[in-house]
Each structure stands twice: as C-alpha cells, then as structure tokens.
Amino acid sequence: MIYSIILAAGAGIRFGDNIPKQFAKLAGLPVLVHTLKVFHNNPSIDKIVIVSNKDSMSLIWEYVRQFGLGKVVKVVAGGRTRQESSKIGLDCCDRNTEYVLIHDAVRPFVSQRIIDDLVKAVKQCKAVDTVIPSADTIVEVDKKGFISKIPDRAYLRRGQTPQAFEYQLIKKAHEKAHRDGIENSTDDCALVLRLGHPVYTIMGDEQNMKITYPLDLHIADKLFQLRTQAIESYDKEYLKGQFNDKVFVIIGGTSGIGRFLAEVLFGFGSSVYPVSRSTNPRIDIANEESINDALSTIFRREGRIDFIINCAGDLLRKDVEFMKEEEWDYIYDLNIKGAFLLSRSALRYFKKQGFGYLMFVGSSSYTRGRGGYAAYSSSKAALVNFCQALAEEVYDYNIRVNVVSPGRVATPLRYRNFGKEDPKTLLSPQYVAEKILMSLLVDTTGSVFEINGNEKHW
Predict the structure, then answer these.
(1) Quick count: other Cβ atoms within 10 Å of Cβ 406?
(2) Does residue 242 sit in the same domain as residue 206?
(3) 380 phi and psi, to 5 degrees?
(4) 256, 427 Cβ separation under 8 angstroms
(5) What is the mean pLDDT of residues 26-53?
(6) For a surface tag, which of 124, 349, 421, 458 has the fewest beta carbons within 10 Å of its beta carbon?
(7) CATH number of the domain within which 18 lies
C-alpha cells in the first residue's frame, strides 16, 4: 500500500496574507485542492493523509467532500515544525503501509510523471528525492559575507517534493532524529542520510514550484492558464464504444474540423447534429435566439444532449491601425461572445439533465499576440479565460468545460487567409478531429488540450 502525506500545516508567515498560502485561490480553486487532485488521480496512490493546522481541519474536510477526493482518509493536526508534522503524518498511516510519498501542499504543479517515476524508483532504492539542476552558480560565504567556496554547479541540484520512502525506513529515520535531539530539519531526505542510507534522485520539473511569496501566486496563475492537458491515445473501436450512444451537437459542423468530427461520429453510430447558419435546425453562434431554438429542437427530439462542441470561429488578418470597428466586433462576436451565448443556453439543458460537456475549439495563438492578429489572438486568449472561469462555476453540476488548442490546420478558413501552403506544415482536420474525441475522455475540466506534433491516423 502506498500513502501520500500532504503537508498543509504552514501558517503562511512569508506569504504575508490573511489566509495561509495553501488556501489561497489559484485559477479559481484553493492551491491545496489542485495539489490533492493530482495525487487523487494517480492510480499508484492508495490513500492520502493531510497534515493541517488544527483550525483548518473542518475546511479541508469540506474540500474533500465537495471535490470527491475519496482517497483522503485522514486530516490531522500538525506540529510546530515541518519535521514534527511529517512525523505525525507518518504515524497516522496504516501499519501495512509499504511506501510513502511526502509532498508540500503548496506545490500544485507536481505532475503525474513525477509521481510515477518516484513510485518506480522507491521500490528499488527505498529513498528517493525529486530534484532539478541548478541554473545559477551557488556560492558559499563565511560569517563575514565573503565567498569561501564555489561548488561545481554540475553536481548541484535544487530539491523539490514529493520525496518517496520505504515506510519503515523513514519511520526509523524520524525516530533516530528525535532521540538525537534534532527537532527542526526541513528535509526528510536529510534524516535518511543521517542513517547512512543512500538517497536516489529523479528529475523534477521547473514548473513544480513552491508557492511561498505573493509573487509566486501570480506566477502560478499564469502557469495554470498556459498549462496544457495531455491527450492519451485510443483506438477507433474503443472510442466507438464510448460514443456510439451519445448525442453530439457540433457548432460549425459543416466545414473544416467540425465536418470531420461529424463524419467520424456518424461512423460510430452516434446521434450527431452538425449545425451552422445553413442547416436545419439553424444556428448563428452570435445570435442567442437561434442558439436557443436549435438546442431546444434537438433536446425535444433526443431527450438529452451529451456533448456540445463549438468549432465556429473566424480569422481576419489585419493590423489594428487598418481594422474597422465593425470588423473587430465581428471577430469578437464569433470567437468569444458566441461562446458566452452558447454556454448560457446550454447550461439550461445540462443542469436539467444533471450532466453535460462543453468543448470549445481555440487556437495556439492564445498564448501570445502577434502583429496582424490582434483581434483573433486576443479573442482566443479570452476564450481560454472564459472557459476556465465557467468550468469553476459549473463544477458542482457535473458539467465539464474544456478547450482544444490546435496548431495550424488545413481548413477552408486558413486557406482563405493564407492561400496555398506546404501541407507538411499543417495539421489535417481529420487528425485534429480524432484528437478532440480522445480529449473528451480525459477526466478534467477547465483545461487546455494542445494538438500538434506528428500525425498518426487510425
């Protein structure tokens, strides 16, 4: 059995806020919740113990219930120091615990890859630390402030968490430290090294940052906005089994990516409604009345709507200086106002049926504005922020909201704006459609899925 101990007892003195940093909001959710979700979703982690300050225990249990974090089995009061809190967490694990991962609650960007690497390594080495190379030269100074030594940077690493241990080994290390009068060690690996036991290292991640100061939270917010979710690969037969009895509404489903999505889903036997301004029912994404009429017609006919995928959008390549106000409004009406109108209408049906999935097709242009694309790229950035906010608002209603962000795709829209291009530099709409369907099976909300790379079709 593998336990994870999440250390969340810090008072947040350096953070300088009225609330401890582990409860500060990051992308709409408490930092602690983001951290817990990573460990809860890893199949190797069996149970989670949270070590908290005593005044926050009830609040944490509320988070556990609200976000369905069933692997959390204990929330316990920590001690005066990190070392004492770590030992309390260890003492609260089951006796049959084999391995334990100890992690700071304020490192919400820990990845599944890091956890997997730790679990694999600890079974071989019994003690493993997560580290990254040092990009800076480290200097050692004497009491007067003069440099006394400059270690070789090639052998220096910056420590992160999680740290993983054989359970009995780390228990023994803490017991020896207590007997020896050591009370304020800030690192569990240091206690294991005192036993004379070697500690192996695995590669961490630059983004696995620790939120310590208010500036860190601003950096973390930007990282979260730009963070992308991996799309696993599934074969065609598996996807068919997942979608053949589902009801899909595809906005912009008569051209480009939307058309290929509809064709694949028709082949799966799904109930598919590829709608646009030229279909029946008709949808104009910038007109709320037409959206309401179309969704109402489909809902009455099918009795439910499982997925709504919005592929509608447009691109107008023009510098701000030469763009007319009505051209700017046109792009924003299609690319962002339409998302708002569609969402507001869709939520009526999703809340009524108790579930639903909204997927929006964005663009890789959302990460940085470029000359000639001010309207397009800013509207796609707004779309990501909109979807992340909406995902938080509807989380409790079992409604998921995500964005796919493809690179350059060989669609009629791109051809109209760029003309003939080398097909090797473009993704095919068929490939993007397949990846969108795969992304629908990833259990996440408020996420961005990047679609790029080497194409492999069914």
Answers:
(1) 22
(2) no
(3) -75, -35
(4) no
(5) 93
(6) 124
(7) 3.90.550.10
- Residues 273 and 411 reside in one and the same domain: yes
pLDDT, position 11: 66
Q: Which residues contact 248 (CB under 8 A, 6 or more apart)?
A: 261, 262, 265, 270, 271, 272, 273, 306, 307, 308, 309
Tell the burial category of 17 from Cβ atoms under 10 Å away from its Cβ (0-12, 13-18, 19+): exposed
**Residue spans of beta strands (DSSP E) within 150-264:** 157-166, 200-203, 247-251
For a pLDDT cut of 90, what percent of the chain falls above it? 74
Predicted confidence at residue 59, as pLDDT, reads 95
User: pLDDT at residue 112 above 70?
Assistant: yes
Host domain of residue 271: 236-451
Helix (H) or strand (E) holding 264: helix 256-268
Helix axes 338-353, 288-302, angle to 10 degrees: 30
139 in Cβ contact with 164 (< 8 Å): no
> And the tokens for 255?
């051209």
Kind and range of the H or E run holding 52:
strand 47-52
Query: Can you tell me the distance from the alpha carbon of 243 to that of 437, in angstroms, rounded to the nearest whole number?
Result: 9
Q: Examine the pLDDT at 231 and tell me if it is beyond 90.
A: no
Q: How far apart are CA 251 and CA 309, in angstroms?
A: 6
Q: Which of 166, 194, 224 is at the close of a domain?
A: 224
Give the DSSP per-residue string, 80-115.
SSHHHHHHHHHHTS-TT--EEEEEETT-TT--HHHH
What's the CA angle centered on 399, arms 397 and 404, to 5 degrees? 160
Average pLDDT in the chain:
91
Q: Which amino acid is at 156?
A: L
Number of domains forming the structure of the chain: 2
Mean pLDDT of all residues in 18-33: 84
Distance between terminal CA atoms of the chain? 38
Q: Distance (Å, rounded) from C-alpha 226 to C-alpha 161?
A: 22
Residue 457 lies in a domain: no
Average pLDDT over residues 198-210: 96
